[in-house]
Amino acid sequence: AAFAADTKTIAVSIPAADHGWTGGVVYHAQQEAKALEARYPGLKVIVKTSPDGASQANALEDLTTQGINALVVLPHNSDELTDPIRQVKGKGVFITVVDRALRDPIQDLYVAGNNPGLGTVSAAFVKEKLGGKGDIVVIRGLPIVIDEQRVSAFNEGLKGSEVKVIDSQFGNWSRDDAFKVMQDFLTKHPKIDAVWCQDDDMAVGVLEAIKQAGRTDIKFVLGGAGMKDMVKKVMDGDATIPADVLYPPAMVAVAMDLTAAGLFDKLPVRGSYILDATLVTKDNAKEFYYPDSPF
Amino acid sequence: MSGELAPTKAASRFQDFDLRAIAPFAALAVLMVLGYFVNARFIDLDNLTNVLARSAFIATIAVGATFVITAGGLDLSVGSMAALVSGVMILFLNKAMIGDGYMLLATGMVLALLLGGLCGAANGLGVTAGRLEPFIVTLGTMAIFRSLLIWLADGGSIAMKSMELRADYRPVYFGTILGLPFPVWVIIAVAVIGAFLLYRTTFGRHVMAVGSNEDVARYSGISVGRVRMLTYIIQGLCVAIAVLVYVPRLGSTTSTTGLGWELQAITAVVVGGTALRGGVGRIWGTICGALILEVISNIMVLSNFVSEYLVGAVQGAIIIIAMLVQRSLARRN
Amino acid sequence: MSGELAPTKAASRFQDFDLRAIAPFAALAVLMVLGYFVNARFIDLDNLTNVLARSAFIATIAVGATFVITAGGLDLSVGSMAALVSGVMILFLNKAMIGDGYMLLATGMVLALLLGGLCGAANGLGVTAGRLEPFIVTLGTMAIFRSLLIWLADGGSIAMKSMELRADYRPVYFGTILGLPFPVWVIIAVAVIGAFLLYRTTFGRHVMAVGSNEDVARYSGISVGRVRMLTYIIQGLCVAIAVLVYVPRLGSTTSTTGLGWELQAITAVVVGGTALRGGVGRIWGTICGALILEVISNIMVLSNFVSEYLVGAVQGAIIIIAMLVQRSLARRN
Amino acid sequence: MPVLAASGLSKSFGAIEVLSNIALDLKAGEVHAIIGENGAGKSTLMKILAGHLQPSRGTLAIDGEPVHFSGPVDAEHRGIVLVHQEILLAPHLTVAQNIFLGREIRRGPMVDDRAMNQEAARAVRELGAEIAPTRVVERLSIAQRQLVQIARALAVPHRVVIFDEPTASLTPVETEALLKVITAIRAKGTAVLYISHRLNEVKAIADRVTVLRDGKWIATRPAAELQPIDMAQLMVGRDMANLYPAKASAEASAAVAEEPLLAVEHFNVPGFATDVSFGLEAGEILGFAGLVGAGRTELFEGLLGLRSGSGSVRLDGRPVHFREPRQAMEAGIVYLSEDRKGKGLLLAQDLRTNLTLAALDRFASGAFIDKAREWSALNQAFQDFDIRARSKTLLAGQLSGGNQQKLLLAKMMLLEPRIVVIDEPTRGIDIGTKEQIYRFIAALAARGKGVIVISSEMQELIGVCHRILVMRGGQIAGEVSGDAMTEAEIVVHATGVSREEARAQI
Ligand SMILES: Nc1ncnc2c1ncn2[C@@H]1O[C@H](COP(=O)(O)OP(=O)(O)OP(=O)(O)O)[C@@H](O)[C@H]1O
Ligand SMILES: Nc1ncnc2c1ncn2[C@@H]1O[C@H](COP(=O)(O)OP(=O)(O)OP(=O)(O)O)[C@@H](O)[C@H]1O
Ligand SMILES: [Mg+2]
Ligand SMILES: [Mg+2]
């Protein structure tokens, strides 16, 4: 209050912790909020989660009514939230978009993982590892845009090789559903060379199903996102998990950090900041292993 | 069959009705006071109009649900139906070749209403001609509608392409008339028409009779199937109306649109004082129920005490407490 | 309310009961034949045991739901409850300082059962002491239980840390006894105990009476509140039993664990021939209903005809058709 | 020393006092009848005696000891059981399960269904009925449910048994059996409180009679001193002359019509009625007699589209087929159900809603319901049918049993039908009102309407009908008219025992 002019509020609007990755996002956002408030006296960080696009639009309205200086938003869905975010922008708020690009680039700062990149990197790895030939099954997430981007890029990446996707189903980014789908895939297909499930949560279920069936034809399972247990397996040289593709939930912290730096330190932060969809292998796994993170 | 024979206090029915009908509004008032203490900005005009406008979807759908539930039915498919109807509507707006923007919008709206009615009729058919439990029929169509949307959207989302059209359509959510947001007028219109239908027409009387005791209704010459069918069609139309207001807000539909709306709508109905076993319907209570839900989630965002992880718990607890308050009010009488 | 009053031949109750009770099994048989034609591997022993074992969670929970529904109640919180109970159990297994692995597991299991019973009792309290609609109470606790789990898990997942413990526990899902997977034995045990309780004990009789006509039950000296309460506690115990089998499968719990199980459990109950309005309960039908659901989703993955986007639609349609087949069978009689 | 005594009992529902200052004593081994008009407060009094309701004022005493019942279960433990006027059974449970509900016979932790089924069968047989103990109550007729309810009450150890109109839905055969049972339990020293509107029955069985009027005690007299006509007088407070109106001849009013108003040929209702043919003239009152389960109810439900049935039906010579009751109503035929609680009235809705439900179109301009017209119709109905309720804003379920019946009659008459089928029209109706209803039926016929009366009270059929068809096992077993309309003749047809056979059996 002594330096009223220096009191600033950053609102962080993110999806509710409805599966492993978003859970990680909420965790990192809350941690970073505490860290930033400690670092910048006079900064208030409000973290709000929403279970779906429509409620996120509501939350944006509500946050704006409270009076905010900057908004860090990880939209449920770009199409749905472009207009609501535009509304907020209209009130003169600094906008940082995380992960999912809006339809119009109205944001000031864009911090993202790379969904198509995740598909492309995964495809390249699968091709290489299988020697350009083999039958694979794909377990998809939920039918939303992120999933679609990853899967299209993946299919695109396989083009021209003899790696064939013999089946794909939705596993809803859930361990249990992935377990079931994998059990049934194993029944259905006598020979599967590899599994791509784009998400480490689902990989947990897939591995368990393979273990139970005792099948040896499956050479490897490729997940994604960089869950610590999976990174550990890569690090330990587990043959079924030879690699992982990063899609770190901590990107939200990066975005918050940059936003706060822009607000307080007057650093030039406008622009795009795209995190690589890094391929984690045995060689570099150590760098990406955070044993204390919940994800 | 239960309850009727139990010794009841001989309060005249009128008094009784009154306090019960008022209870949800009392709960809403208490919540508003709570909201003010949580964050003084709660009573900002901007905030209140936001909350009101937003509650339009659930309120509209819940008015339809009031009919279905009063007639002793249930509809779990409304959320998926909303997604499907809005998806088809947007696809139509994107593809159709009608020159004038307003003409196109009008046609799209009519199409949405038709489709909503049709979806409702499908549910009604399963319940009446198929003689299945409403729970099963609408659980089935819930899956079917959503699947169809996902298929239409190719797993992604469906967005309005034309920016001009969006601009033309925007006022339907964001515009105001006489200072009140347009969606609020929609709530009022839907509720007034709903209340008229339910309380003042023969059809409404028949709805209550069917929900009260199907046999008595049949023996009184009411064609139970027709009444049931119509309640589901009304539900479909209400969903379509909600869609008309929903589409201009976000301009797109995804596979998660409307997820969980069915539970919210039913909750609004129950919180509003309509019993799930049928026979009694309270349109204005339902509207109040929808507002209560929206106010609770608004307060959750405005408050800064609750860990994000625990928001759901607090919300759940508030709903239970609000109902306890209501019940004790109604019983006091 | 419908159906029962339709003109039926004056068949003796026994015959009548028989065909109704058999209808779900007939539907299951038809589905199995369908499954074989869709993919001959469907009838592989491995596949069938997989399906059986997988259905254990929903089947067990649905047995509990049969009690609640027969007594005229409803429980929407079972999925969240399963998540919470498994989360707490795993946390306990990770933290507790009991030397012997098996001792530790046993203590953890007892804890899970206690917690399940407690959660059920909380629901029961809201319904009996609070006199609220079961829908509202359990919708509230559904949010509360899940929120608590997410909070405990810090938004992420809770996994069993000790690999030895996991190995000790694994057989509870993956092991077999006499060639049948362990979870199948659990289903059988739960169903046998459930059927015994519901059909052979005074408690079961009272459960049906309370669901059939609460006033009559009260006048007959049955303490309605106690019976209701016990059904919710049984539901909680069944959830806990499902958790005991669930945890060894993946050794972890996440915020999505148990999502949607409530609808699946209720569907299993209804598909099994128990009416949602209470008074009649069919334990074996419920088990059959749970199998039907699992078989349908198995067939969906095994088939090659259906686009993955449309799986939901086909699933929904099959459930509706299965119910239509059942109804026409039961009516034929 | 009376087993059960009440003094100064009053009961108010809100501001409405329905019982005031009632005193009553009940001796072991006596049958004490309570009579009174519909709404006089009989059921309310019984509910207080059996612990279902708490009195607003006054005290109860058992064997001279003051008692306070915390509930019906408490009263039952002290040996006081009540057979309700309404059916109070769990519809989804079987007969045996209902009879033993709350006091199941057990073997170890298990219920002993075999024993209970045997016991239940025996208990029901004692009441002169044959009902399989494993039948679900939902599937029983009203009469059968009533018997099950009686069996249930008698299965408890009891010192006082209260019967609230037990015979209203029973036929003479079952009534006979029940009266025997009552005589038997009286002989064992049980005190019996007996409510009935059938004054002959009261005369036959009661030792003492107490009369209530408008919630007040009027008199208690030895039954021997009273003839039914005196009882009626005490109840109503005025002279009762003729119960049945004079019969106009049907032919006179039917006049020139060539075609019968209604002609039914070879009609079948699967499972209930086979090959039924009959005709109804305009202005005729046609009775249908038969034992419980004879299929009369189902026959007419089939004819009116309430259940599936097939055969030829002609109305004014034109063939009709009703698939829905609505169609029958539009054609001018209405059916008044015997099950007024289950099929007649919405118990949880108010009187106005109930009254206008079937004829709602008449109260609507366009789709808009005119509440003022509804209210005036309710006022009219209160007058025409002498409905007694202290308030017009009650729920239908709060009316006394007899007044519910009157409301149901009023409701269906609003349709101004050409043909009325009345199933058990006077079930539970007091003698004063009965007279009104009979006059009403006669007036309908006099106006050229066709009336069909289904009744288990043979006296009533004989008193009002021009002609009576007797059904047995779903078929028409015979027709009686004119001087042949005697109870004996009807029983012969209804039971299927010919006079010769009957003689041979003896
Ligand atoms: N719960 C209630 N609330 C208000 N009034 C009631 C209630 N129950 C009964 N009454 C009224 O009390 C009066 C007496 O009813 P009761 O049922 O005792 O009459 P009854 O003598 O048994 O008549 P019947 O011969 O028709 O059965 C009636 O006027 C009735 O409307
Ligand atoms: N829903 C039903 N399902 C099967 N049987 C039924 C059903 N309803 C009634 N019944 C049986 O049909 C038979 C005829 O019914 P009911 O006793 O109503 O005939 P009724 O001629 O109308 O007799 P009354 O009018 O004397 O009571 C009875 O044995 C009864 O148990
Ligand atoms: Mg009475
Ligand atoms: Mg009958």
UniProtKB/TrEMBL annotation, chains B, C:
One of its GO terms (molecular function) is transmembrane transporter activity. This is ABC transporter permease. Keywords: Cell membrane, Membrane, Transmembrane, Transmembrane helix. The keyword Transmembrane helix applies. Its main location: membrane. Pfam families: BPD_transp_2. The chain crosses the membrane at residues 21-39, 51-69, 102-122, 134-153, 173-199, 229-247, 283-303, 309-325. InterPro entries: ABC_transp_permease. It is found in: Cell membrane. It is a multi-pass membrane protein. CDD domains: TM_PBP1_transp_AraH_like (cd06579). GO terms for cellular component: plasma membrane. It comes from Labrys okinawensis. The keyword Cell membrane applies. Signal peptide: none annotated. It comes from the Bacteria.
TrEMBL record, chain D:
Keywords: ATP-binding, Cell membrane, Membrane, Nucleotide-binding, Repeat, Sugar transport, Translocase, Transport. Gene3D superfamilies: P-loop containing nucleotide triphosphate hydrolases (3.40.50.300). It is found in: Cell membrane. Residues 4-239, 256-498 form the ABC transporter domain. One of its GO terms (cellular component) is plasma membrane. Its main location: membrane. Pfam families: ABC_tran. One of its GO terms (molecular function) is ATP hydrolysis activity. Belongs to the ABC transporter superfamily. PANTHER family: CARBOHYDRATE TRANSPORT ATP-BINDING PROTEIN MG119-RELATED, D-ALLOSE IMPORT ATP-BINDING PROTEIN ALSA-RELATED. This is ABC transporter ATP-binding protein. It comes from Labrys okinawensis.
